[in-house]
C-alpha cells in the first residue's frame, strides 16, 4: 500500500575537501500527484568536530525513511576493478559478462556506419553504461544538448567515485540510483518543449541563472512540482543545488516508471543510469513504489 507521502533525495556530491556538496529533499504525495521541494542544503562540508562525510551522513539520516536517493556519481566500479582474479585474461578473451558485453558492442559498432567515431574501450576505467550512453543515447539528442561523458575512473570522476563507494557502505539499505543531471535536463527539456538555447546555457556562468529559472518554472507549471520562492531563487542561482534537485526529481521519475529501461542483454549488475524516457512529458502517476 502506498504511504501518504514519500521522500526522495538528490545528492550532488563533490570532493570531501571542498564545500560544494548539495542535498535536495522532495516530498511526493501520490494521491494528489504532487511533489514539493521540502528543503535544499548547500555547502555540506566539515562542521565543528565532524568530517564532511560524517556531516553528510548525519544530514541524510535526519530525513528518516527514504524512498530513494538519486546521486550524481557512479555507484558501481568498472568490471576490471571489481574482478578478484589474480591472473587476468586479455580483454579480448575475458568471459566476465560486463567485459564481454563491452567487447561485443564495440565490435558491432566498429562494423557499422559510425565506425570512425568508435573508441577503444577500457574496462578498468569504464562501465558498459558509458558505452551505451555514448553510442546509443547521446547521438539521438540535438547537438546543442550533447556533452562529453566522464568515465567512472577518469580524471574528473575517480575521486568522487571513490568517495561514493565509501559512503554507500555507511548508507546501508538506502535505495540509491545513479543520475546524470545533464542527461536528465536534456531529455526533460525536449519533453517539455524548452528551447535549445535554454538547455545549452543552463550551466553557463553568465546566462545559467536565467536558464535554470526558466527550466524550474516550466517544471512547476507542467509537472505539479511546488517550490517555495526562496528555494526557487536558490536553485536558480546555484548550479550544484539545481543539479541536486534534478537528481531527486529523476529518482522520483525512476520510482514511478518514467525512466528508460536497460536494453535486452545488458549486464545490469555493472551499473545503470536513470534518465527520463525520451517522450516523458505527462504528469507523474499515482503508483509510485514505496
Provide structural commentary.
- Helices cover 39% and strands 12% of the residues.
- It has 290 residues and is of the alpha/beta class.
- Helix 8 (208-223) crosses helix 9 (229-237) and helix 9 packs across helix 10.
How many separate structural domains?
2
Q: What is the fold named in CATH at topology level of the largest domain?
A: Nucleotidyltransferase, domain 5
**Cross-sheet strand order for the largest sheet:** 6-3-2-1-4-5-7
Q: What gross morphology would you assign?
A: globular
Q: Outline the biggest β-sheet.
A: 7 strands, mixed
H/E element order:
EEEHEHHHHEHHHEHHE
Mean pLDDT: 90
CATH architectural designation of the largest domain? 2-Layer Sandwich
Poorly predicted ranges (pLDDT <50, ≥5 residues)?
279-290
Computed over alpha carbons, the radius of gyration is: 19 Å
Please count the helical segments: 10
**What is the H level of CATH, i.e. the homologous superfamily of the largest domain?**
Ribonuclease H-like superfamily/Ribonuclease H
- Work out the helicity level: 25-40%
Structural class: alpha/beta
What gap, in angstroms, lies between the N and C termini? 8 Å
Amino acid at each position: 500500500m502506498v504511504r501518504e507521502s514519500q521522500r526522495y533525495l538528490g545528492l550532488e556530491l563533490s570532493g570531501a575537501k571542498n564545500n560544494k556538496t548539495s542535498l535536495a529533499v522532495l516530498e511526493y504525495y501520490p494521491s494528489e500527484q504532487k511533489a514539493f521541494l521540502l528543503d535544499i542544503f548547500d555547502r555540506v562540508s566539515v562542521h565543528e568536530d565532524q568530517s564532511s562525510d560524517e556531516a553528510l551522513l548525519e544530514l541524510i539520516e535526519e530525513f528518516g525513511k527514504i524512498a530513494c536517493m538519486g546521486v550524481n556519481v557512479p555507484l558501481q566500479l568498472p568490471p576490471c576493478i571489481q574482478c578478484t582474479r589474480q591472473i587476468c585474461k586479455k580483454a579480448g578473451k575475458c568471459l566476465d559478462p560486463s567485459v564481454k558485453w563491452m567487447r561485443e558492442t564495440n565490435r558491432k559498432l566498429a562494423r557499422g556506419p559510425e565506425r570512425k567515431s568508435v573508441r577503444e574501450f577500457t574496462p578498468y576505467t569504464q562501465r558498459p553504461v558509458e558505452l551505451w550512453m555514448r553510442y546509443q543515447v547521446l547521438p539521438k539528442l540535438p547537438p546543442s544538448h550533447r556533452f562529453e561523458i566522464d568515465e567512472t575512473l577518469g580524471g574528473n570522476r575517480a575521486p568522487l567515485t571513490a568517495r561514493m563507494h565509501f559512503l554507500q557502505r555507511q548508507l546501508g539499505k538506502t535505495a540509491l540510483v545513479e543520475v546524470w543531471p545533464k542527461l536528465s535536463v536534456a531529455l526533460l527539456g525536449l519533453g517539455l518543449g524548452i528551447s535549445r538555447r535554454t538547455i545549452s546555457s543552463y550551466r553557463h556562468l553568465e546566462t545559467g541563472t536565467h536558464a535554470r529559472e526558466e527550466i524550474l518554472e516550466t517544471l512547476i507549471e507542467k509537472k505539479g512540482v511546488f517550490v517555495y520562492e526562496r528555494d526557487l531563487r536558490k536553485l536558480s542561482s546555484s548550479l550544484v543545488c539545481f543539479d541536486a534537485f534534478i537528481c531527486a526529481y529523476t529518482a522520483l521519475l525512476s520510482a514511478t516508471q518514467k525512466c528508460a529501461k536497460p536494453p535486452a542483454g545488458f549486464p545490469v549488475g555493472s551499473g545503470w543510469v536513470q534518465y527520463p524516457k525520451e517522450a516523458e512529458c505527462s504528469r507523474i502517476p499515482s503508483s509510485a513504489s514505496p
